[in-house]
Amino acid sequence: MPKLPNLIWLRSFECAARHMSFTTAAQELGVTQTALSLHVRSLETDLGCKLFTRAARKLSLTEVGQAYAFSIRRALTEIDLSTNSLFGVTHLQELTVRVPISTSALFLAPRLPEFARKYPEVSVRLVSNIWAESAGKEDVDVELRLGVDDWSRGTAKAISTERIVPIAPKSHMASSDVFTNLPFVQILGFQDMWQRYVTKFREQPAEVTPTYSVDTTIAAIDIVAAGGGYSVVLERFANTAIASGRSIAIAGQAMPIEQAHHIVAGQNLNSNNIARQFFEAWLETVFAE
Question: Where are any strands of DSSP class E within the chain?
Fold first, then answer.
């Protein structure tokens, strides 16, 4: 049976994997970059497996490294939680978490009680925005964005894969074709999704004129649930709405899209690092389910 790796090596690896930077990880842990790099190489030697692919000015995880980083992050957060619960402070600093409004209402908020039960020492302040570009300048500890990783500031880490599905009123599902008998509800920011969906799965012309244009998936689902039309939304949002009793139904196959949810480095320089790691590790878990 192989011996357990050195805990310092594991923390160095997890931090480097989270930031994809030995320099940033070394700054966070308060060690030199040389020392941190040595810790990671020692871990790789001990495991007999490469965890990182190193290239000029670019660091990436190997396939094994990705799987190992996810497991180690969860294990280390549990260790930190137990240590703080038994020997440290009784209440961790409040976390301010900024999330797209539809992700907040249709996915994250219903799951926050689960986080509170698991991490009672962490207090979460949830703030929402419709467009990432219109987000306020207040300091946040954790920011979640939906889109393609093309943001210039900070480091973004994809934590989900997303698929879209068409939705229709539950009362209209017996119709021979709900997509020709009902108006179309378009979500701003996702204007091309219906055209891409019908091009892939249907024989009807892709062009359709929306009867409604809304700026959130929440509003689109409300219109569909009221029998006012059909739309195309993220599958995870549709599933949450259906589970909560909304009168909608998924009316076709799911289609993968390039957009994903990303954790973006927060702006708060006084962020509680342990609490933030708890929350980010938990986010990765719930979005992977």
Answer: 52-55, 58-61, 95-100, 124-129, 142-147, 156-158, 162-169, 185-187, 212-214, 231-234, 248-250, 255-257, 260-265
